[in-house]
Amino acid sequence: MTSAAGPLYEYTFYVEPEVLPEFERWLLARADDARRERGIVDVRTFETRGDDRDRAGRIFQLRCRDDHVIDELLDDLLPTIDAAATEEFGEAISVFGRTLREDPDQDIPPVESPDCLNCGTRLRGQYCGNCGQRARNRLISLWQLLSEAFGDLLEFDSRLWRTLIPLLIRPGRLTRDYLEGRRARYMPPFRMYLVLSVIFFVVAFFDPKDDLSLLFEPEPPPTPEEIAAADQEAEEAEEAAEEVHDDAREAIEELREQGIIADEDAAEAVAALDDESDGEFNFKIDPETGECTSSGHDEMPEWLQRRLTKERLEKICERVGADDGKTLGNLMLDNIPVALIVLLPIMALVLKILYPLSRRYFVEHLLFFVHFHAFFFLILTLQILFARIADLLRVPEWISILILVAASFYVPVYLYKAMRHVYGQGHFFTFTKYVALAVAYSIGAALTMMSALLFALFAVGR
Predict the structure, then answer these.
(1) DSSP state of 127
(2) Which domains are present in the chain?
(3) Does residue 134 sit in helix, strand or coil?
(4) Would you put residue 120 in left (φ > 0), alpha (ψ -120 to 50) or beta?
(5) What is the DSSP secondary structure assignment for residue 77, as one 8-state letter?
(6) Distance (Å, rounded) from C-alpha 321 to C-alpha 456?
(7) 444 vs 235: CA distance, rounded Å
């Protein structure tokens, strides 16, 4: 290859020995395809030294006519080769690409700057080696702005899709790759977690008719017939509850008359039946008068009584009744993302306890749950979108339910497989620790959700 032509683009492949013959045939086919591309002066492949994992090394070089050609290749052919290699051989190969050229100190025309316009570093290629900015200073078109904004969504080979697909269908793959150093091809873990959590909450709780009510006509008020039907249903439900209550009292009285239970026990049972709070704190709002009543305050822990005083509870009750609990619900939703973030280090600590001999740092266990929660947000978002689309397309209800139930069962299976893939233990030990982790997760989730509710109550009562 002569030096008269423009820059080189070089791929370095490290290939597992068992797929090497197939890979070499694949590489020759890619070389033939590249030779047919306009602007590519020459193509060659040759061997190079292998890596420390005893994988064979192969070099694939493409010499371009000029920088303009390599710009086009970076947007078209080169990502296709990278994606095709990864899709064809998966973890059996590693791919590294770079641009090579002669030292441009003496060759850069006087009208062009030899330094990066962003950070001032001396340029040695198409991109700055310090900050990554393109070497060329060119005007940005509207199409380029849109491509930068939505390119990751539209390009199948982007880091977004290379992250979401294994996150969804390959349990533990992202965590293991990240821990083994294969990181550049994926979105950063916490960024992915935050993006997927935001998308989930937007999809789950955004109601166009509520949040964009100005664009919709108000619903007509209920007709007298609808009001009468609703009142009748409420009366029937109240009568049914009273009948159940009376039947229970009669049963207790019969047991007392037959001598099965003592008079004192019967009196206590009737008193407990009449006391609907059953020793737990609750408050009720009369839908007609708006009057708020609470009970069970004395049964709460002392530390909570000092913070949730009866006066504050009455204020909370009044404010909840004023807007049918909408403010409380919104505050609760605001606290849930924080509660889930607090849950992450708690569960990482549980993993640290469950795997004391794994020699993994706490942050590595934390990474495992960052990926799992990101997957959880993704699967919930897909379930919600599927349910809404199925409703619009009038998909049979039994099909929708079957798919949603199958997706729900996939979540615990995913967690088990991820534990196996990342920590590498056998089925017996993994299942034992999986059960312990599931119990700890249930308790931790319940505690963090209760904390989120308490903070929402405190905020309402201020």
Answers:
(1) B
(2) 8-157 (3.30.70.100), 158-218+325-462 (no CATH)
(3) strand
(4) left
(5) H
(6) 15
(7) 40
The DSSP 8-state label assigned to residue 184 in this structure reads T
Say what the pTM is.
0.56
Q: How far apart are CA 5 and CA 100, in angstroms?
A: 12
CA neighbours closer than 13 Å in the CB half-sphere of residue 346: 17
Q: Residue 355 and residue 390: Cα distance in Å, rounded?
A: 42
Q: CA–CA separation, 365 vs 349, rounded Å?
A: 8
How many CB atoms are closer than 10 A to CB 125?
15
Paired with 57 in beta bridges are: 14, 48
Q: How far is CA 98 from CA 74, 117, 135, 459, in A?
A: 11, 21, 15, 55
CA distance linking residue 366 with residue 235, whole number of Å: 52
* Other C-beta atoms lying within 10 Å of the C-beta of residue 410: 16
Q: CA–CA separation, 344 vs 78, rounded Å? A: 38
Contacts of 118 (CB under 8 A, 6+ apart): 128, 131, 133
- Residues 74-120 have pLDDT tens digits of 777 777 888 888 888 888 888 888 887 654 444 444 344 456 777 76
pLDDT at 201 over 50: yes
Tokens of 231: 């009142």
* Size of the chain in residues: 462
Is 315 or 19 the better-scoring residue by pLDDT?
19
Please name the residue that has the structure tokens 């009001």: 227
Alpha-helical regions (H) of 424-462: 427-460
- Per the CB < 8 A criterion, the answer to whether 63 and 42 are in contact is yes
pLDDT (average), residues 241-269: 72
DSSP-based three-state secondary structure for 97: strand
